[in-house]
Each structure stands twice: as C-alpha cells, then as structure tokens.
Design a protein that fits this description.
The protein is α/β, with parallel strands linked by helices. Helix content is 65%, strand content 7%. A 5-stranded mixed beta sheet has the order 5-4-6-8-7, sandwiched between helices. A 3-stranded antiparallel beta sheet has the order 1-3-2. Helix 1 packs parallel to helix 5 and helix 8 (179-195) packs parallel to helix 10. The protein is globular.
C-alpha cells in the first residue's frame, strides 16, 4: 500500500508541475514575455515551414538593416537569429511533426524527462528511494527550473534537461560498456550544447574533472562513442552556422549589426570571436558579488542556504566519498565560472532597472547551478532527518518530519514562481493585455505597414514589420525612405502635447514628415508618420 501511495504522489507532482508549465501560453499566442522567446517562436515556425532559419526583408536594402525585432539581426536583406541555432531547430522540428502544440510542450516534456532521469541515476548510486524522491522533487520545483520551464520558448531548461539526460545515458553506457549508449549520450549532450554553445568550455572542464578522477570506470568504447556523437552534432552545427553567418565562429551575438556581404562578416578575428563568446562581459568582481547575492541567494534564500550547507555535508560523506567529492568539485568549478562570466554583466530585463525578479537573465544563466543544488539540498534533508535530529528514531524516519521541511520549501518555491512582478500570474496578465493591444493595432494598420516601437516588437512581429526603437538616429534617418514605400507608424507611450509639437514643428518637419495620432490604447497611442502634403 505504501508503495502505491508513493508512486501516486510522484505521478501527481509530475503532472501538476507539467500542467502548470503550460499555463502561461495556454490560450494565448503567439504572445511571449520577452523578445528572445518571440524570436525563437518565429524561427521555429520558419524552420518548420521552410527548413531554414532565414527570413527575408527586401526593404532593409534601403534602410541599412534596421527593420527587425530585438533578438534578431539583419545582415543585408536577410533576418537571422541573434541566438544559438539549436533551440529553434529542435522546437521547429517538433512543430513540423506535432504542430504548435508540440512546439509549446517541448520544454515541459524535456523538463519532466530530466526529473525522471535524475531520480533514476540518484537511486542507482545511493540505493535510496527517499533521497531520489527528494532530489527529483527539489529539481522539479526549484523556482528557476519551474519558472523557465513555463517560459516554453526559452532554451535554458531544455539545455539543462538535455545535459541531465545525456549524463544518465552516459552512466548507462558505462554500466553496459556500450558504445551505442555512449554515442547516444554524446548526441544528446551535443543537442543540448547546440542550444547554449557558449557553455561548451565549462562543460569540457567538468567532463575533464570526472574523467581524471574516474578514468578506471569509463570504457574507451564508451568514451569514443560519446566523443564521436558530440562531435557529429558540433560539426553539423558549425556547418549551418557558417552557411548562415558567413563564418564558422560568427554567431548572431557577434555578427555586425549591418553586414552586407559574407566577406564582411567573416573578417572578424577567430580569437576575438572566441574571446567574446567565452567572456562576453569581461570580469568585474564587484558586479559578480552583487549579482550573486541578489540572484543567487536573495531570490531563493532557503534553497540556496540549504544547498551551501549540503555542499559541506557532501564533501565529508564517507560512503561514495570519491563520487561525492567529484560532484562537489564540479559544482564549485562550474559556480566560479558561471558567476564570473554572467555575474560580471549588469542588465535590467524588467522595465524597472532596480527590480530584482526571477525574470532577470542571471537566473536562467545560472540554472545549471540551481539544478545541481537540488541534489545537495536532498542530501542535507536525508542526513538531517536520519542522523542529525536528536529525537526518537521512529519520529526521525516519519513522513511527517520530512513533510514539514518539504512543505516550507515548496511554499517558498511556489511563491517565487507565481507571485511578484515577473511571476507567472503577472506574466500571463501582461500577455492578455498585450494580445488586446496587438489586435487593436492590427485593425488600424495595413498588412504591409512598418511599425516603429520601443518594446512592443515582441507581440507585433511577425504580423507587422517592426523597427526598434524610435529614439535612434538611424530610425529617424530611415523615415523619409520608408514613407515612400510603405505605411509607417509609431506605437508607444502617448506623447505629451509639447513633445508632439516638437516633432511636428522641428524634428520631423525638417524631413518633410508629420506624425498624427490614430488611436489611444490604455496609456499608449498609435501614430501615423507621413509626408507633409505640399
């Protein structure tokens, strides 16, 4: 009876979190909280329909490549992803086979698969179902994993999930000394890296630590299969990268904003490109400490504190000592790397630059660390319950004693995921508002119109072509040319009368243009930009 109860609870948690991950996009679309997600959704659709990740915008030939949303680049008349190519390819393939539903459930399905895989590998090593249950539960419900699992067109949960699945496949390969399983492990990890290729250096370091400390446990057949599979994906990825951007080492992050020929794109030094990929923001110790505090601890204080304590317990473990110390070394090295690389970057994803929210990019970039912390928190809980509590043995092993700790942790996690300025409740409400604004603006604009926006590109494109932002010299310079070819609009915060007068009497007048309000929606207004009638 106890066995059935335990399996029922496991299935309930998996299903409940899976369904909650779909809640943000269910019945709303395609509207996403960020331009990165909108770009991934667009290129997934493009790949599903055409087999390539390239869109065309002929007008860019006349205006210097400025017609495109954020998170995309426009060399010449092409519009390309500004991110790594693997995620839109994978989600595009899912869309091709299963339609939009397949595209949107891809990330949640991978997340659930990774949780199940983690349960298996923990149980296989420690022979303890309670430990495996807690580790998988803490991964499933960690705020970062849960939240970005619901942000279905972000690649970070898919990246971490594929790494976990690849590691589990590698463990299985070592058990069976199977080159086939090793090959599968390499292919899966390679697919994961195709979504976040920038993490390849630290992954190689971590893999090196494991191989050096446990080389006797790894068959050469397994290692050869894994390397062959990973390199196969890498070669295919770099070939596509070179075809799209004109150079193997050029990416959407490093391509010049205006690149008219492949020769211009490929002129960037390979060492400069690698350096920009590995340390894109430089090294800034003060920023690292500040961001590590706010986004690594303050947002999730209980989980992070327990993980730090669990790290110390893992290092002192007597059973499986070598394996635990290897795990701790890998986590510490990865933590130093990821905090140094991304902690040096200060950015405000929220319109309020002072807001500390789960929607900030640091949280998703540090997702591998949060995933690893689930095992450390589980270790602490098991050790605390079974060895450290100075209470009666029967109470120490009681489900009630563990239920209190798990319940408090789950409550904190649920609050972090759903509440707050960037929580899923606020994100869905914002998506509903954005959908209403989009539908209203589409009614007032022609299908071939270009709309200048400041942040609304993420829900107007691809229904309308967009330019971001208004207050940019290149945008103003392109206006006289654009009005000769297409209807031109601006949508943004309603101008005060003094600003509207300045535009019509000075700024735009010098270009022979005028700006006229068309419709106001909440606190934003759609304006038409047109030539002054002579």
């Amino acid at each position: 009876m106890a066995i059935h109860w335990r399996w029922g609870l496991r299935i309930f948690m998996l299903v409940a979190v899976f369904l909650s991950m779909g809640w943000l996009t269910l019945g709303i679309g395609p509207i996403f909280p960020s331009p990165d997600e909108s770009a991934n959704a667009f290129f997934a659709q493009t790949f599903a329909e055409t087999g390539v990740l390239i869109a065309s915008e002929p007008l860019n030939e006349f205006v210097g490549g400025i017609i495109h949303p954020r998170s995309m680049v426009a060399p010449g008349t092409s519009i390309l992803p500004a991110s790594f190519l693997g995620f839109p390819i994978l989600t595009g393939a899912m869309r091709y086979v299963f339609g939009t539903f397949g595209e949107f459930v891809f990330t949640p399905m991978l997340a659930i698969s990774a949780v199940i895989a983690l349960w298996w590998v923990v149980k296989r090593y420690v022979k303890d179902e309670l430990f495996a249950d807690l580790a998988s539960l803490f991964l499933l419900t960690h705020p970062a994993f849960w939240y970005y699992g619901a942000r279905v067109m972000m690649p970070n949960v898919a990246f971490v999930s594929l790494l976990i699945l690849g590691v589990v496949c590698f463990v299985k390969a070592c058990d069976k000394k199977s080159m086939v399983f090793g090959l599968c492990a390499g292919l899966i990890v390679g697919l994961g890296l195709s979504t976040r290729l920038v993490e390849a250096p630290i992954l190689c370091v971590v893999a090196g630590i494991v191989l050096i400390r446990h080389y006797r446990s790894v068959s050469w057949r397994v290692l050869f299969g894994a390397i062959f599979g990973g390199l196969g994906i890498l070669v295919a990825y770099l070939a596509m990268n070179a075809d799209m951007y004109g150079s193997v080492m050029t990416t959407g992050y490093t391509i010049p904003a205006i690149a008219l020929t492949p020769q211009e794109v490929s002129s960037t030094s390979i060492f400069t490109t690698i350096g920009h990929m590995v340390i894109p923001f430089g090294i800034h110790p003060k920023a690292m400490l500040v961001n590590a505090f706010w986004y690594g601890w303050w947002l999730f204080p209980l989980s992070s504190t327990l993980a730090v304590v669990g790290t110390g317990i893992a290092w002192r473990m007597k059973t499986h000592q070598k394996a635990w110390r290897t795990f701790v070394l890998c986590v510490v090295v990865a933590s130093v790397w990821l905090i140094a690389v991304y902690g040096s970057w200060t950015i405000a994803d929220n319109p309020d630059p002072k807001a500390i929210t789960i929607g900030n990019s640091h949280v998703r970039y540090w997702l591998p660390l949060f995933a690893a912390s689930s095992v450390l928190v589980a270790l602490l809980c098991v050790q605390w319950l079974r060895e450290m509590l100075p209470v009666h043995r029967g109470l120490r092993r009681s489900p009630w004693s563990i239920g209190v700790m798990v319940g408090v942790l789950l409550l904190q996690n649920w609050t972090a995921v759903f509440r707050g300025d960037d929580g899923l409740i606020a994100a869905r409400a914002a998506a509903v508002v954005s959908e209403g604004k989009r539908d209203a603006v589409l009614e007032y604009t022609e299908s071939d119109a270009v709309i200048i926006v400041d942040r609304a590109d993420k829900y107007f494109f691809p229904a309308r072509r967009v330019i971001v932002p208004l207050r940019d010299d290149s945008t103003y310079a392109a206006m006289p040319t654009l009005v000769q070819h297409v209807p031109l609009y601006y949508f943004g915060i309603t101008f005060p009368e003094i600003d509207l007068a300045y535009l019509n009497e000075e700024k735009l007048l010098l270009m022979g243009l005028s700006i006229t309000p068309i419709v106001t929606i909440d606190n934003e207004t759609l304006y038409q930009i047109s030539r002054i009638a002579l």
